[in-house]
UniProtKB/TrEMBL annotation, chain A:
It is found in: Cell membrane. It comes from the Bacteria. Belongs to the ABC transporter superfamily. Its main location: membrane. SMART domains: AAA (SM00382). This is Oligopeptide transport system ATP-binding protein. It comes from Halopolyspora algeriensis. CDD domains: ABC_NikE_OppD_transporters. One of its GO terms (cellular component) is plasma membrane. Residues 17-268 form the ABC transporter domain. It is a peripheral membrane protein. SUPFAM superfamilies: P-loop containing nucleoside triphosphate hydrolases.
From TrEMBL, chain B:
One of its GO terms (cellular component) is plasma membrane. It comes from the Bacteria. PROSITE patterns: ABC_TM1 (PS50928). CDD domains: TM_PBP2 (cd06261). This is Oligopeptide transport system permease protein. Belongs to the binding-protein-dependent transport system permease family. Pfam families: BPD_transp_1 (PF00528), BPD_transp_1_N (PF19300). Residues 95-298 form the ABC transmembrane type-1 domain. It is found in: Cell membrane. GO terms for biological process: transmembrane transport. It is a multi-pass membrane protein. It comes from Halopolyspora algeriensis. Keywords: Cell membrane, Membrane, Transmembrane, Transmembrane helix, Transport.
Amino acid sequence: MSAVDNRGGGSPESRLLEVEDLHVEFRSKDGTANVLNGVSYHVDAGETLAVLGESGSGKSVTAQTVMGILDTPPGFVTGGSIRYRGEEMLTAGEERRRELRGENMAMIFQDALSALNPVFTVGFQIAEQFRFRRGMSRKDAMAKAAEMLDMVKIPNAKQRVKEFPHQFSGGMRQRVMIAMSLALDPDLLIADEPTTALDVTVQAQIMDLLDELRRERGMGLILITHDLGVVAEVADRISVMYAGRVVEKADAHSLYKQPGHPYTEGLMESIPRLDMKGHELASIQGLPPTLTNIPPGCPFHPRCHRAEDACREKVPEFHDLGLGRASACHFAEELISRD
Amino acid sequence: MGRYILRRLLQLIPVFIGTTFIIYALVWALPGNPFAGKCGARSCPQAYIDKMTEQYNLNEPVIVQYFLYLGKLLTGNFGETYSGTEVGTLIQNAYPVTVKLALVALIIEGVIGIAAGVLTALRGKGFLDNLVLASTLVLISVPVFVTGFILQIVLGVQLEWIQPSVGSDPTIGELFVPGFVLGSLSMAYIARLSRTAMMENKRADYIRTATAKGLAPRRVVGIHMLRNSLIPVITFIGTDFGALMGGAIVTEGVFNIHGIGGLIFEAIMQQEGTTVTGVVTLLVIVYLLMNLLVDILYAALDPRIRYD
Ligand SMILES: Nc1ncnc2c1ncn2[C@@H]1O[C@H](COP(=O)(O)OP(=O)(O)OP(=O)(O)O)[C@@H](O)[C@H]1O
Ligand code: SF4
Ligand SMILES: [Mg+2]
């Protein structure tokens, strides 16, 4: 599949990040949850990959595994590969991975209030990276922290570095989080639902800021969200996840025009649309599978309106649909050739 | 903040009057003749009794006695014992020893308690965790005077490592074992408190952020996790200082330390009401002020807390 999957011109070796067939399970007394069952995606420098999927589909766990901050135990990587600029991460030592964190890859989280340490000023939390990673003096580091706040367009940055996270509004706090993640100038940024906790008007501002920073710095951006609406404008490519797998991947344009997987279709129908105001919001019936007991065949079949006998027995292959598109549905070709 | 402190200080007044009145009433309403045994084997001469009754307003109702007492107290006069010694002087002699003992106890319980709690939280299940769990259970369930006597007999009498009985002006070294005994209960509590706090913070989102920033584990744990986990522990230690001063009675009795505890113990035995009320009043003031101090400290440690 990778032969056709060369948007952005990168060969597999020059890829910024390549995740391949990643398996992660969470072990507990009650059994083993198969949280990731072969996730593959990649992102190149300067492009935005959106990762979509319902709650529990494994978007965050994939990101944490890439960053090397998975809670182990209970989480264990049981297979696959994560390559950053061709370097295998899963076999790299913890010291090497720590070196890369912040400096090469960084992450921002959904809830900036809980993701920032409540007892330290935001300046302290940004400056500590300059102090302990770059060996700067306390004073210089603080000045750099103020510069970072300025860069994410927080007014009055010089004063605000001395404030604590709870003194910022939700949107400003997420800007602090972005400033902090970009402090060491990483070339890969993973944003895990950066706008979910925010007001709709603020959401757009934060998305614009992220997009602008990505462009200026030529970063690769992985944008995790379950909101297809947010994605439409900023994403170059989209990977849709279900039950710990990528079930469809495509460039944003073709995906919106014609989804190649019934699950993606369901997600699209649940976007609130202005012209549909007053109509009942369609959503996918049923619930995602329990990860300790994923149904045989296509994991989506109990909820799929197209399911046939074959779906209950045979796990669908990834069907290559050309131009970097692929879908894990037995009827992928049919789906995209509809009009 | 200034207004908050003022308000709290004003609130202290009714609390202070209420508690001291209860103490006063209890002490002076104690059954028994306060002059029994004061004059050797014979009963006291009537002249002496009259003089004392006059001096302590013993003929007045308790409430009047109390306010007369309170009036003197506010001028810094703690009154006199029956034998004519200034209670203020007695307190001045005994207080520093008890403060010293309480501080030693506080340091021991803080250092050992926090170390045990933090280490077990970081190591997770295993030998150390079980050891600390078992020993805190023992410390919590065995009464302080039993711990005191055992250590006194084993370390003092049998092994002769320490003086079983401490002199009148003890050094810090001499107070080490008594301090350990006095602080043992709180030590067990601190160990558990810091362990729980560390376990809670371990999975906190901001710890994940700190790791994602590429900080060294040493810094993630030692700065980010510890700083947050110690907030409840430090406030507990602050409150405990007031409590330890009062709790020193038993420990001082066991190790024969001439502190506030010894003073109060003797005073109760001899029905010296003035001394008892004076000392207990002082303990109440210290306790109330420490609580205020702890609340201020809490706001200093956790910037999210705002009074006013
Ligand atoms: N620390 C953990 N311990 C146990 N299970 C976990 C842990 N973290 C995640 N999981 C499980 O892994 C599965 C995937 O979780 P993940 O957070 O990746 O979902 P997600 O796609 O990010 O969902 P959301 O949109 O809600 O953020 C869930 O079923 C979750 O319960
Ligand atoms: S394989 Fe079958 S069940 Fe699965 S998505 Fe396609 S049609 Fe639905
Ligand atoms: Mg998530």
